[in-house]
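ESCALATION

Customer reports they have been waiting on this structure for their group meeting. Please prioritize. Original submission:
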Amino acid sequence: MDEAGAIARSRSMAETQGASPPSWRGRSRRRLLADVVGGLRQNRDKLRQLASLGAAFFRPALVRARLERLRDLGHVDAMPTIPQLLVAGRDQMMVSAAEETRIFYRSQGIPWVFHNLRRFVSGPATMLDPVGLLAPRDAIVHHVLQTFHRHALYDLVLLRAHEGGVEEMALQAQQIVDGTHPHQRALTSLMEDGSCHARLLHDIAAFTADPHAAPRPIPPDLVDEPDLMIGMDQFKDIRGFARYASRLDVGIAGAVAAWLAVAFDETLGGYLGVKLGPQRIVRTACDAEVVARHADARTSRSPA
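Update from on-call: job pushed to the front of the queue and completed.
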């Protein structure tokens, strides 16, 4: 696809999802970076979340317990192994979500590297969990509050693995709207859609009323790459993620190799133009109906 086509596509992605421009766009980089540095309270919270996340990497039983809780609550119907979860997380994060987010950022005029740097400074733990089951409750909450979500169902379900998680999400979302959140400056300076926080309150209320409501369907003309459409659809809720993970044929050695490849691709490989990791999800690990829905998807948009 040529540059004009890519720009037209990215514009259409934001418009299709009803996203409004971020309120902070146009401010200087110095001020934007200052927004996310925070003070003593904010950085203490960052360190606490990061420590909890780091500890979870060495506590597979904790991850298993959270997944079992979600199974008991009726949110998942497959129980993948830790290596399967890690490789599925790689595919979700690096193959599907990253490309979708790049397209969305272009549509909103958001610089990819600088914005992700700000996200990391604001909350390292919000960006370092490849599966969502390792992060502590507040890291999940802050992730939702700092990042545009078409539908935050995946993360709201994750919060049900934590005692009082959804209630805490509702409390902090209201604080953001009221302007009283302890991390107000950073979270509002990061949100890529100016109207997302207001919509989030309605999404939380709807989820509280019916935690088992189906995820919203992916707009059929959102992007014109079938594999990306399949990935977005498969990973739109944790049930689909767990099913995908459970179908992967991988052990611990394969999981370690997968994430070493990610480390190379995101550092030296990026400079050399060499990519070791996959560029597509594993279609055979996806639900058959999801693949059938998007396998031949193409949009018919003309450049705006």
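Sent to customer with the following note: The CA atoms of residues 136 and 147 lie 17 Å apart.
Escalation resolved.
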